[in-house]
């Protein structure tokens, strides 16, 4: 089973730790981005932690996930190390992708993480493919494709669900309905009350759960996983959630007001889970503070590591285009580096 | 392996279609992780009958009919390749790559690189190209330049039955995404094909199909056979060397350059549109490496930047053929 699950006190504490770590990671990433230390685009997961962690709590460590452009939370939920994640955000050689991916593409296939993705809706076909490998080789795993509410409008998402459904593949599609696709509210993108209703078209179960409640997400995914492993095909789980931050860091958010954000914050996934654990007598306020300061220390160390570790050698730009390197890479890479010198060998 | 060495192996006469089918069969037998998928590849046997009989032989797990959803199954093949299996996808007509382009260009082509080399993508995409069947613009395109242009994708295009078999097998064994562009007009063309199960044509190796001294013709796909015919017909007047690059990316620059250094003249014959394409790449490399060996302007034979029209006289008008190759040779010889 998972390296943590919500059926045990240890698992619950680990889930809380992962949620807190995600928040600490993303708060820090936002600050470091604002300071100009992190290049590119950064999309934060703050407010949505219960979805990624809830889903991964019901997965085995060797199950696969395919993520979205908002992928930091999925990475931590899946057990990736914040140190190498942060190094990747900084574009460093020790990052998960050797500095070639950045925030939007963190991946670790060996850990079952098939990548964050810069293309909205591209993850579900990849998850269907991972489920195909699993099914083909009779492996006891499942593959989860995460997608946003906006991505539900993408054609390739429906092709992926249809294929997984037709072939009864062990796939789970988790829609993170955070109510906005960039600045456009979900109601303006879909004529459906519940996005999980789209599952009907594929004759697979579709459920909508409270995405601020980690238990609700975990239960739905656990059920989907059982179904998938029994050979009964995919399930669509829609988790209703909310992102506290702008679409990307720097977003001025003209499309929503503070009240709305505050209303969702009242149901904060971390606070509410923490309160439940305290009520059950599994956690004290002091222990929570400790857990949070540990998470903050972990992220601080990650930032320090990212700042200090080496940038890739520029020649690494020509590596890993292929598994089997073609001669073109030497031919053209050398020219690019020769300061406008004559190309080729015909100097007569 | 050179064309010469290939002929020293034991061979059998078969068509290009049979050669590809044989390659698929052998690779399905050799490696359990290899399976075929695509629209109508199963019971139907493939719209151009390449996979015919394989469904009966290997069953529906290994010869899989997909829904008609190119983006979905191209993406699934990419995800499957990244997670331990070796899918061989048939994309019914290469024009349909447009429907799946997102998964091809942003996922399949970039995953190995973006993940810092930490995902292998042993996916093979077989697809048909070319006009000549009256199939009109959406089923006759020659789009290999697009794919050859994308870093992260390899593109091969056989011109003979032997290379069709060898390249298909090499593509399936490759740990990189490889597109195999089959010209639909030469499926019936037959030739000697090595029967050895270990025979492959290494990706990135051209074949000198015919030796000559006066003009080098670099020809692809259908134009390989037609150029060989022209070379035979000019025997005694012009000595023509015919090279099939076989692999468009990577491209065997050396073999082509060596030939041009010998002949001093070059014709590049490829069915794709002439602007900004495969021809231009070959020409550029030759002028970089062998400019001072050239005795005449390089000639290009291709489709004059149109789509392929339906009506047979129109189609014949735009498709490059042996007459065009002959005219190009005569202009410079
Ligand atoms: C194919 C594609 N179209 C547009 C974009 C630009 N874009 C990036 S994120 C985004 C919104 C996605 O919304 P949703 O799927 O709801 O995810 P969320 O950002 O809410 O997590 C858009 C339009 C993109 N990256 N890819």
What can you see in these coordinates?
The complex is a heterodimer of chains A (348) and B (333). With 348 residues, chain A is an alpha/beta fold. Chain A has two domains: 9-312, Rossmann fold; 315-347, no CATH class. Chain A is built from eleven helices and seven strands. In chain A, the strands form two sheets. Chain A has a five-stranded parallel beta sheet with strand order 1-2-3-7-6, with helices on both faces. Chain A has a two-stranded antiparallel sheet with strand order 4-5. The longest helix of chain A has 26 residues, at 9-34. With 333 residues, chain B is of the alpha/beta class. Chain B has two domains: 11-194, Thiamin diphosphate (ThDP)-binding fold, Pyr/PP domains (Rossmann fold), CATH 3.40.50.970; 207-331, Rossmann fold, CATH 3.40.50. In chain B, strands 3-2-4-5-7-6-12 form a seven-stranded mixed beta sheet, sandwiched between helices. The longest helix of chain B is centred in the N-terminal third of the chain and has 15 residues, at 16-30. The chains are: A alpha/beta (348), B alpha/beta (333). The interface between A and B is large, with 58 and 57 residues. Thiamine diphosphate (TPP) is lined by residues 68-70, 118-120, 148-151, 178, 180-182, 247 of chain A. Chain B: Its cofactor is thiamine diphosphate. Chain B: This is Alpha-ketoacid dehydrogenase subunit beta. Chain B: One of its GO terms (molecular function) is oxidoreductase activity. Chain B: It comes from Natrinema longum. Chain B: Residues 14-189 form the Transketolase-like pyrimidine-binding domain. Chain A: Residues 17-314 form the Dehydrogenase E1 component domain.
């Amino acid at each position: 089973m998972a390296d943590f699950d919500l059926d045990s006190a240890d698992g619950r504490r680990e889930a809380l730790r992962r949620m807190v770590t995600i928040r600490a990671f993303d708060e820090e990433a936002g600050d470091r981005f604002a300071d100009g230390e992190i290049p590119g685009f950064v999309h934060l997961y703050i407010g949505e932690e219960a979805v990624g962690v809830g889903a991964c709590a019901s997965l085995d460590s060797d199950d696969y996930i395919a993520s979205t452009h908002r992928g930091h939370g999925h990475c931590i939920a899946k057990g990736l190390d914040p140190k190498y994640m942060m190094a990747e955000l900084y574009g460093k050689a020790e990052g998960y992708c050797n500095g070639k991916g950045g925030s939007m593409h963190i991946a670790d296939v060996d850990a079952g993480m098939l990548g964050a993705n810069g293309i909205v809706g591209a993850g579900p076909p990849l998850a269907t493919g991972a489920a195909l490998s699993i099914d083909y080789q009779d492996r006891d795993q499942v593959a989860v494709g995460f997608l946003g509410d906006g991505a539900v409008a993408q054609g390739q998402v429906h092709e992926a669900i249809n294929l997984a459904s037709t072939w009864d593949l062990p796939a789970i599609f988790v829609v993170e309905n955070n109510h906005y696709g960039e600045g456009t509210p979900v109601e303006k993108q879909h004529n459906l009350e519940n996005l999980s209703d789209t599952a009907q078209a594929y004759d697979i179960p579709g459920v909508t759960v409270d995405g601020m409640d980690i238990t609700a997400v975990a239960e739905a995914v656990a059920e989907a996983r059982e179904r998938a492993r029994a050979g009964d095909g995919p399930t669509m789980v829609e988790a209703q959630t909310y992102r506290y931050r702008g679409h990307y860091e720097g977003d001025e958010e003209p499309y929503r007001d503070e009240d709305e954000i505050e209303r969702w914050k009242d149901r904060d996934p971390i606070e509410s889970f923490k309160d439940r654990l305290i009520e059950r007598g599994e956690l004290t306020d002091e222990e929570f503070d400790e857990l949070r300061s540990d998470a903050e220390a972990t992220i601080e160390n990650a930032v320090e590591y990212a700042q200090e570790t080496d940038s890739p050698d520029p020649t690494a730009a020509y590596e890993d285009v292929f598994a089997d390197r073609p001669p073109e890479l030497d031919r053209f890479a050398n020219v690019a580096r020769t300061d406008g010198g004559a190309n080729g060998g015909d100097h007569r | 392996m050179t064309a010469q060495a290939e002929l020293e192996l034991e061979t059998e006469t078969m068509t290009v279609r049979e050669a590809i089918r044989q390659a698929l069969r052998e690779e399905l037998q050799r490696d359990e992780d290899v399976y075929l998928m695509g629209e109508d590849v199963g019971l139907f046997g493939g719209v151009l009958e390449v996979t015919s009989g394989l469904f009966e032989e290997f069953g529906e797990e290994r010869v899989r009919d997909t829904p008609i959803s190119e983006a979905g199954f191209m993406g699934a093949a990419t995800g499957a390749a990244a997670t331990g299996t070796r899918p061989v996808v048939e994309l019914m007509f290469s024009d349909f790559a447009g429907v799946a382009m997102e998964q091809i260009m942003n996922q399949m082509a970039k995953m190995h690189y973006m993940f810092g080399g930490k995902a292998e993508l042993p996916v093979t995409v077989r697809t048909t190209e070319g006009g000549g069947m009256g199939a009109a613009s959406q089923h006759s395109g020659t789009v290999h330049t697009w794919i050859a242009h994308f870093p992260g994708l390899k593109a091969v295009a056989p011109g003979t039955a032997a290379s069709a078999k060898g390249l298909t097998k090499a593509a399936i064994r490759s740990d990189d995404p490889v597109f195999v562009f089959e010209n639909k007009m030469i499926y019936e063309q037959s030739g000697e094909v090595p029967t050895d199960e270990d025979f492959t044509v290494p990706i990135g190796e051209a074949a000198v199909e015919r030796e000559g001294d006066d003009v080098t013709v670099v020809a692809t796909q259908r134009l390989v056979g037609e150029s060989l015919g022209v070379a035979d017909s000019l025997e005694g007047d012009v000595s023509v060397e015919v090279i099939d690059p076989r692999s468009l990316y990577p491209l065997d620059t050396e073999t082509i350059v060596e030939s041009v250094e010998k002949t001093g003249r070059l014709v590049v014959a490829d069915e794709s549109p002439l602007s900004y394409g495969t021809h231009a790449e070959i020409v550029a490399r030759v002028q970089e490496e062998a400019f001072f060996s050239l005795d005449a302007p390089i000639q290009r034979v291709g489709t004059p930047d149109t789509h392929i029209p339906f009506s047979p006289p129109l189609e014949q008008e735009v498709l490059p053929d042996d007459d065009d190759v002959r005219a190009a040779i005569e202009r410079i010889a």
